[in-house]
Design a protein that fits this description.
6-hairpin_glycosidase_sf, 22 helices, MGH1-like_GH, alpha+beta, 6hp_glycosidase-like_sf, Glucosidase
Length: about 900
């Protein structure tokens, strides 16, 4: 067992940096253990084996306590190894609940009045990138958890009303809850000290039962994995549990104090679930729950105090505190170590490890933005903690899922039809740690989300950021045709092509020195770019049909579905994303060409592709009309169809939304060194512009500043910014809205001959499109706002501060593009900072905005934000892309 690493004092930051330097790969020893246990496994596509393909109904929350998962595990404040075999998490019981609290509860897509929604409060409070230090706080009611009441409240609320939350039930009134703080501190790569502290914040004493659990993921029940695994709990020499696994080897869990030791198996209770005649094991997954809560003495094994032992695959240590006085804190300690155990698990080294890791974490985070004020540092640290905590082990072998398992009934025939979910992704075979959008509402990867995650990750862990981008391009994930999988619900759907942009950002943030990474990602993205060109530009017009492209319900029609008849939707955003993609790949090729001239020709290919898109964007689409609408000074989707006589009917979809702002992102600066050093690229570009002078409108040259390549010339750029910075349209106090507030009263628009109505909705969606659980019809979204901020800084960089616009529109106040970027950035950052009343705009009307510091001190990172008030909405732990605020904050403090 490796010895402890405990650099302290001024060496604190260097201690974590040293661990990172030893951890370049995903399987490095310091990365072996981490917060990789999912916040939710039930209700996922992976666990859905139903003929209907209804993942939520196939494996509901009410099954989770008694039914073994096939592909992963879940738990509260838990950790696991990088392979997802051995898991450690916290279960609780307040003496009133009908079940153990072993996992977070939330409503399914059909139960929530705005789609799926978690109904718990917890905060990911701290962490380091090697997971040498991790903390989370879970808030547990003292009264019976109101499962039924929450379902009923959501059922009665309707789409016009807010989502009901746990606090709305009254169960947390008078602070009648326990705050359970779970801390993990590594003394070595496989030596983890665990402290669980619970504080009674209520006015009366209350019982609390803490049941830390250790268990193996069920790999044996499916007929595909014969590796042995077993837990053995013993009281022979103190209270210990040994965990032996054919892949991991041996681990030992030490228990401080004298808890009851309960052992069962991680096997389904098929008798209670499905009415089977017998269970595969006499000890089932819910055996510990039934013993503790219901007093069923025959449902699990109890280890006696006099040297007894019991074997199984799921274990709990039952610590009972009855009562806990008001204001009192109770604590338990555990230690998980590799091998046969630690000689003195709870001796001085335990407290020293916690102290040292806490100090090292403080100094590591302080060094990220040393000029930030305390509130900014608090937001920054919480954002990065949440980002690191939502790294989860993701395992899914699609061909086994499609075909079914040898020991289970044959997979339904509906799974093998050409239209079946993910049937064309048989090659996908993932068993990796992946940065998830949200540990409960999105406990699966999403391609464009992940690209945004890598940007704040570069602040703390550039190696992980690069590995994540490469992972999605590896042969076990990327389709053989070059498509990057979108997300679990439908791998074949389409997300915006932002990987090249993210790769450039990560490369530059890491000092522009890892050319090997840049070359590897570039060659893979060539395949993806070809897929886009071949699949999403049907007639070679350079106007693209991407699908919904992540902005779910932003349009009046479902853009994931084919248009009626022979109509075709030519998308402003898809076309603009491809223009930007071309420029990003051009920039990567130019960077690589500095040391390898063979990349110059590839860079030329991409600048020419960009210019073809730009020309079509302006006026040469399939109908002779482009995406640009000169009368409105804005960019719109178009629908068109070709008649038998060869004529083309076309019309714009005149809804002013984020799809018309995405063209701002398609710009790049050709630095002076490009024009002076890369003669092959420069001469080819000069030749092209001489032969086709009409393309010069998209490139502006300057003797000293190089050249500016942009989808929008200066005239169009100013007209789009005029709308974007208008407070009656896109500009809100909290960033850029996703739909113009000019549509506040609603509008009717004809699409492919049919009338549709939609309008500005600043908050949660009233539309059932995409399950009603996402809204791009008004709210502020961090990812697109962060891209707009960067685009404005690109404009400013080339124009050297001479490009000015009015902000807000009609105010008479003129700012440079860089100053506009800074102000937008400040508005986004301010979502999370206390205002003059001490309230964070993102807290809105939620309980976090109360006067109590027990609530107000906790920052939440929501999926999106109300376009008028800034209140956080949607998923509540979206420290995936919402962690972009960390990058905005550090950029402003440099």
């Amino acid at each position: 067992m490796p010895g402890p690493v405990s650099h302290t004092g001024a060496m604190g930051e260097q201690a974590e940096r040293a661990r990172l330097a030893e951890s370049e790969t995903p399987t490095s020893p310091w990365r072996l253990w981490g917060p990789y246990l999912s916040g939710r496994q039930w209700g996922t596509v992976r666990e859905d084996y139903s003929p209907e393909g209804d993942a939520w109904a196939s494996f509901p929350f009410d099954h989770a306590r008694a039914r073994a998962y096939r592909w992963g595990e879940d738990g509260i404040a838990g950790i696991c190894d990088v392979h997802g075999f051995l898991n450690l998490a916290v279960a609780l019981w307040n003496g009133n609940d009908p079940i153990l609290k072993e996992r977070y509860f939330g409503l399914t897509n059909s139960e929530g009045n705005h789609g799926e929604d978690v109904k718990e409060h917890w905060w990911l409070t701290d962490g380091t990138p090697t997971h040498s230090w991790m903390q989370v706080v879970y808030r547990y009611p003292q009264k019976e958890f109101p499962y039924g009441q929450l379902r009923e409240m959501a059922r009665n609320a309707g789409r016009e009303n807010r989502e009901p939350e746990l606090a709305d039930t009254g169960v947390l009134d008078e602070n009648r809850f326990f705050d359970v703080e779970v801390t993990y501190a590594k003394a070595g790569t496989d030596d983890i000290c665990v402290e669980i502290r619970a504080t009674n914040h209520g006015p009366d004493d209350a019982p609390l039962h803490l049941l830390p659990q250790l268990w193996f993921r069920n790999t044996w029940a499916w007929g595909r994995d014969e590796r042995p695994c077993q837990l053995v709990a013993s009281t022979a020499t103190g209270r210990t549990v040994t965990a032996d696994h054919g892949n991991l080897g041996r681990y030992t869990l030490h228990l401080d104090g004298a808890p009851s030791m309960l052992m069962t198996d991680n096997e389904s209770n098929e008798m209670s679930l499905f009415g089977a005649e017998r269970n595969p094991s006499p000890w089932t997954k819910d055996g510990i729950c039934n013993y503790v809560v219901h007093g069923s003495t025959s449902t699990c094994q109890v280890v006696g105090p006099d040297g007894d032992e019991a074997a199984g695959t799921k274990f709990a240590a039952w610590y009972s505190f009855d009562p806990v006085e008001p204001g009192e804190t109770v604590a338990i300690r555990l230690r998980l170590t590799g091998g046969d155990g630690h000689p003195d698990p709870f001796g001085p080294s335990f407290d020293e490890t916690l102290r040292a890791r806490k100090l090292e974490a403080d100094e590591f985070h302080d060094a990220i933005a040393p000029e930030a004020n305390p509130e900014e540092k608090h937001v920054l640290r919480r954002a990065l903690a949440g980002l690191m905590w939502t790294k989860q082990h993701y395992r899914f072998r699609t061909r086994d899922w499609l075909d079914g398992d040898p020991t289970k009934p044959e997979a339904p025939s509906s799974r093998r039809t050409p239209e079946a979910r993910n049937v064309h992704w048989r090659h996908l075979d993932v068993a990796d740690v992946i940065s998830m959008p949200d540990e409960w509402e999105y406990p699966w990867f999403a391609a464009w989300d992940l690209a945004f995650h890598t940007i704040p990750f570069t602040l703390v862990d550039p190696a992980f950021a690069k590995e994540q981008l490469l992972l999605f391009c590896r042969e076990w994930m990327m389709h053989p045709n070059g498509q990057i999988p979108a997300y679990e619900w439908e791998f074949g759907d389409v997300n915006p092509p932002v990987h090249a942009w993210a790769a450039l950002q990560v490369y530059r943030a890491d000092g522009s020195k890892d050319r090997k990474f840049l070359a590897k990602i570039f060659h893979k993205l060539l395949l993806n770019f070809s897929w886009w060109v071949n699949r999403k530009d049907a007639d070679g017009s350079y106007l693209f049909e991407g699908g919904f492209l992540g902005m779910d319900n932003i349009g009046p029609v479902n853009r994931s579905e084919p248009m009626l008849g022979e109509w075709r939707l030519e998308q402003s955003d898809a076309t603009s994303w491809m223009a930007a993609y071309s420029l990003h790949l051009m920039q990567i090729a130019l960077e690589l060409a500095r040391t390898d001239e063979s990349y110059e020709d590839v860079a030329t290919k991409f600048v020419e592709h960009f210019l073809s898109i730009a020309e079509a964007f302006t006026h040469f689409g399939s109908s002779g009309s482009g995406i640009w609408h000169d009368e409105d000074g804005f960019c719109y989707d178009r629908v068109s169809r070709r008649h038998p006589d060869g004529s083309v009917e076309s019309e714009p979809v005149r809804v002013r939304s984020m799809v018309g702002l995405i063209p701002l992102l398609a710009s790049a600066v050709l630095e002076p060194w490009v024009l002076s050093e890369l003669h092959g690229f420069t001469s080819r570009l000069e030749h092209l512009l001489k032969r086709r002078p009409e393309l010069r409108q998209f490139i502006t040259f300057h003797d000293k500043r190089g050249a500016f390549v942009s989808l929008l010339d200066e005239h169009k750029l100013r007209r789009v910014l005029h709308r974007m910075l208008d407070e009656h349209e896109f500009l809100s106090p909290h960033g850029i809205r996703s739909l113009s507030a000019a549509h506040r009263e609603g509008l009717e628009v004809k699409v492919a001959g049919q009338e549709h109505r939609m309008g500005y909705e600043p908050g949660e969606s009233t539309s059932p499109m995409f399950g009603g659980n996402s809204n791009w019809r008004g709210p502020v979204w961090l990812p697109t706002n962060a891209l707009l901020v960067e685009a404005l800084r690109t404009v400013c960089a080339f124009h050297d501060g001479t490009f000015q616009v009015e902000m807000p529109t009609h105010s008479g106040r003129h700012l440079t593009a860089g100053q506009v970027a800074d102000e937008l950035s400040d508005r986004l950052i301010a979502l999370f900072l206390p205002d003059g009343d001490g309230r964070r705009p993102s807290d809105g009307k939620r309980i976090e905005a109360s006067e109590s510091p027990l609530w107000r001190n906790h920052v939440t990172f929501s999926e999106y934000f109300d376009g008028d008030t800034g209140e956080g909405l949607g998923a509540t732990h979206q420290t995936g892309w919402t962690a972009l605020v960390a990058g905005l904050l550090t950029a402003r403090r440099r």
